[in-house]
Design goal:
The complex is a heterodimer of chains A (246) and B (471). Helices cover 46% and strands 15% of the residues of chain A. By secondary structure, chain A is an alpha/beta fold. The radius of gyration of chain A is 21 Å and the shape is elongated. The chains are: A alpha/beta (246), B alpha/beta (471). Bound molecules: iron/sulfur cluster.
Amino acid sequence: MVCYTYDGSFEGLLTAIYEAYYRKEKPVKILQEENLQPSMLYTYIHIATDIEKSQKVYNSIMEKISEDALDNIYHVFLADREYERGTIIYNYLRLGWKIGRNIDLHLSDDRVMKVLKIRQRVEREVHRMMGFVRFSLVGGNIYYAPIEPDNNILPLIAPHFAERLSDQKWIIHDKARELAALYNTRDWLIVEADLGKIPIIDAGEKHYRDLWKEFYNSVAIKERYNLSLHKKLLPVRYWRNLTEKN
Amino acid sequence: MDLIRKLHILADSAKYDVSCVSSGSSRENTPGGIGSTFSGGICHTFTTDGRCISLLKILLSNACTYDCAYCINRISNDIPRATFTPEEIVDLTINFYRRNYIEGLFLSSAVLKNPDYTMELILKTIKLLRIENRFNGYIHIKVIPGADSRLIEEAGMYADRMSVNIELPSNAGLKMLAPQKSKEAILGPMGYIRNKILENRDDIQRAKKPVYFAPAGQSTQLIVGATSDNDINILKLSEALYKQYNLKRVFYSAYVPVSNHPALPKLTKPPLLREHRLYQADWLLRFYGFRANELLTNEHPNLNPILDPKCDWAIRNLHHFPVEINKCSYNMLLRVPGIGVKSAKRIIDARKVSTLDFEDLKKLGVVLKRAQYFITCKGKYYPGIKMNEDFIKGNIVADGLKTLLKTKNISYGDYEQVSIFDLLQGNKSDLGSCVNFNNTISIGVDIWKYVYDSLTSGRESIKKQLKPLLS
Ligand code: SF4
């Protein structure tokens, strides 16, 4: 059995899907090179990223399936802890090219439901993180926020903050992936960043943090205390980066 | 007084107002401005009691001149008092917003000196935010009953949402517990805001650069359990508020005992389960096409604590069922227990390309455990299901009881503790003796009667199912 591998980029994955159509050896899986757990049952073929080929696949999805389908697979791609995401996307697209624009009506088909479920999960986290990002004002008049999300959602939340906090410089730092979104009051971009040392918090910043914590603690109604509900809504894994929880 | 102390007092006093949503408005940022709103609303964190924190919810002042019995801020209550300046509120809002702590501000207030004086301070605060600080985040303000309509009108140009709290769901309740507030002082401004919003809708269509009036509409809050009002009174009131006053939301707040006024019930816990059932019923009114008098009648004036309102409706209306999943209308799908708005839409979509069976329904997110009694797929019942009343009621009520037994901290008015065991026996006279029974739930007496009645059929099979749990 054949497994294609790609370099972990979206273009790389689309290139692999392109090759799957034109090469003789058809893959049963498409996996990311990094963190690959090789098995003796498979023959691995590495596919080098080719922007032109990936563009062709991109266009073909837009024309022959739908823009929604493209959106779906981009979301699944960002669910980077989903080991099989390349294969899931490949299977979904193959069905899409067969069925066409109605693909997402085929909800009882596992290939479709799987994609929609992962997308829903990613979207839920995007929505959560719009709320859970916590900025601190650090040196150089920059607002800095560390996050550790389950999915690689920086490209999906950056536009929201660029619109909302458009007149302040900010950095959102995905510590788990060592990526950072930077915004300079005009444009944002995502860079690889190991911001090992987190800037120091000064007294002015501490003042607002204390006020926020005071507010947070004051609004809880003790007669309604419900820890399990609390943890369901605010999962513990996010607490580390929430000002009010530290 | 330092700011931290003030914030403590004025957040603490505002917390019993449960609405904290930031939805219904999509204000975009302006060049050089700060903030935007997100039409679906965003929760920024959650309290330890599991409520969403979206807005900086504070009182401008808690130094009230009124004396509403159910309220912690009443003049006769001995608590620390504080008042913010508009500038302090602006500074907090902007700095919290820039750190992404909040979606915006929810400003309410006790009656400081008199309603107009208070309303003017609220107005001053939100004008400072919108004009001087070009703030485009969400602003929800409470209208102080009795304030001049000119002030209300001006405030509507800066606020996203306005609310006038009714608090007590009946006139009699108001008279007894909030003697300085009249029905007119509450409904007057509500009607006024409704008319302004409607007028504004026409203006917006005509104007090139429209000025919005409370674009996220108005909402109100009802306190549940402070008076003897039945659920049917409450739900009918909500229905009328949605229809006649175009309210966006009615919030229900389980009464938290903050006073020992003789006219108030002696609760030890807020009736959270009842509040939860009211929210479920409210949801059915707004999104599922139910009417209040379908869910409750004079014979059944209260929501069933054991079953969610849709299930309760379904077992009282078994003649509508079963429905065939592959044929039945969207509206009827919505009435099937275990099918929500999302899964109903999915069914409609998926039906276009294939005929659905039970396995498919599971994938579409239908809760078969509930739905199984009420549907057929390709003309067939779910395996093992009998279409007979006793069987269905027995199973559904038993499931409801099992869920309740698993939930800790349930209370339904706390007038009386009733054990599940007694509920099944129909043993009213023994109520007093079962307070310490392990599996107790707290239920108001009249509600208890209702549950008892709804158990007359299927009781034997319920008992059988629950036996392992009770021993
Ligand atoms: S007017 Fe409002 S703040 Fe004052 S006592 Fe009544 S409910 Fe409380």
